Amino acid sequence: MIRKHFAGFVASALALAVSAQAFAGTVTTDGADIVIKTKGGLEVGTTDKQFGFKIGGRLQADYSTFDGIYTVNGDNADAAYFRRAFLELSGYVYKDWAYTFSYDFSHNAGSSEDGYFDEASIAYNGFAPVSIKVGRFDPEFGLEKATSSKWVTAQERTAAYDLVDWANAHQNGLGIQVSGSAGDSLYGSFGLSAKDQNDVDGESTKQFNVRGVFAPMHEAGNVLHFGVNYAQRDLSDTAFDARIRSRMGMRGVSTSGGNDAGTNGNRLVLGGTNVSPAGSYDNDSALGLEAAFAMGPFSIQGEYIKREMEADSAAFDDIEGDGYYAQVAYTLTGEARGYKLGKFDSIKPSNKQIGAWELFYRYDHLSVDDDNGARAAISDIEAKVHNLGVNWYVNDSVKISGVYVKAKVDNSTNANGDDDGDGMVFRAQYAF
Questions:
Q1: What whole-number distance in Å separates Cα of residue 30 and Cα of residue 373?
Q2: Nearby residues of 148 by Cβ (< 8 Å), 6 or more positions away
Q3: C-beta atoms surrounding 352 within 10 Å
Q4: Closest by alpha carbon to 299, among 257, 362, 252, 251?
Q5: What's the whole-model pTM score?
Q6: Euclidean distance between CA atoms 371 and 271, whole angstroms
Q7: Strand, helix or coil at 253?
Q8: Containing H/E element for 326?
Q9: Domains and CATH numbers, the chain
Q10: Is 171 left (phi over 0), alpha (psi -120 to 50) or beta?
Q11: CA 182 to CA 119: how far, in whole Å?
Q12: Which of 4, 53, 416, 427 has the most CB atoms in a 10 Å sphere around its CB?
């Protein structure tokens, strides 16, 4: 019944958004006048700034082809799928209260039990520049995660994040976050969340995140950015999936939203086990450092991540991992990447005939040291991933991308004995 009503709401919202493309302007009422904007979705608000909402979304259709270590037998496989299919509703009431609902029709976010929500939150902004947000949303950890999936440079965020997939994902739990800025150069946030994962007594796993950013240069094409992140979760008396896995930039090996490589898709396991019994581990912590610089159409950025999962039993050893990436990008047509305090934003084409063209290269590196069980006699498993690609920003809403990915793994292979592989990913994106 809930799905039926939600589907009806979605259909009505889409019909309203489409019909609204025919007009834009101010509507006079017996109260505050209403302003309607249709560029980049449907946005409606009162002239006194007390009430307003926006309907938007994003559609990312991907096709990928890959071989070698990306598949179990090493043969070529491919995948065609919706990476994201979001419908987003956001707005504000009585000026200071804001809300966001983002639903993923591709089912890559959320779950059937908890709903496929990427975000469902309420925020109070009456203490500006401080904001208090409650609900389901991703905790803050990392520069690439802070940047919207619409405007990250490569199709997939850095493989180094796979070391700490819990640190910046809501995992169907709920949280509270306090964030704010001091002037135009300082930003910080603190969040506490309860994840959809229980210990033996039925108490949910608790996690806290802290992020701080200093950006003495903070305008598009003129950016100098530094950041630090820390996250910790309590795994005491909790049975959980302790695997540290990576798709190494190739989502098509295992995804939702359409076809993937199925049983022949190989998702690299760098450490841990899928069934870690209660009492095996205690604190799980992650430290992240980030830096970026941009001058005109050129940008460079990187992050370093370190994780430590502390054993809580003499039968287990600590698991440690670290990773990093470095990325350079250049816009051939001269446009600069947008920047908002704490994150990069979109590239807006200055020439509407040819759009904006961007070239990029990113190197990802991650390694895990796990001396438990079968891995006790194995040296650190390392993954190295090269990403070389091009982005065409056709206009403010449409983006076409292609990337070549080359992976090399040390001390691990697929069933065929392959320790390297390559592939390509193509994406067509529409965001409104």
A1: 73
A2: 343, 345
A3: 9
A4: 362
A5: 0.90
A6: 9
A7: helix
A8: strand 319-331
A9: 48-429 (2.40.160.10)
A10: left
A11: 26
A12: 427
